């Protein structure tokens, strides 16, 4: 069972993580998607931590091979 992170609106950590995976990049965007952080604001720090964790995880994830192949099409710029 996921813990409730936003007490005012009874929003769980799992719901916030789903909003992040769906593309929310800021606390305000989280609020737009699931209303967390739009009440008293005491959970906004916790939401920031979840956003930072997701950004760090994305930074460690290597680019997909197909994307790397596309990037190689642009070359190094030393062709001429």
CATH domain fold name: Arc Repressor Mutant, subunit A
Sheet with most strands: strand arrangement: 1-2
Overall CATH architecture: Orthogonal Bundle
Distance between the termini: 59 Å
Low-confidence stretches: 76-80
How many β-strand stretches? 2
Secondary-structure-derived class = mainly alpha
Brief summary:
This protein has 80 residues and is mainly alpha-helical. It contains 4 helices and 2 strands, in the order ββαααα.
Key features of this structure:
single chain; 80 residues; mainly alpha; two-stranded antiparallel ribbon
Word description of this protein:
With 80 residues, this protein is mainly alpha-helical. It has one domain: Arc Repressor Mutant, subunit A, CATH 1.10.10. It is built from 4 helices and 2 strands, in the order E-E-H-H-H-H. The chain has a two-stranded antiparallel sheet. Helix 1 (13-21) packs across helix 2 and helix 1 (13-21) packs across helix 3. It is elongated, with a radius of gyration of 18 Å. 22% of the residues are buried. Residues 76-80 have low confidence and may be disordered.
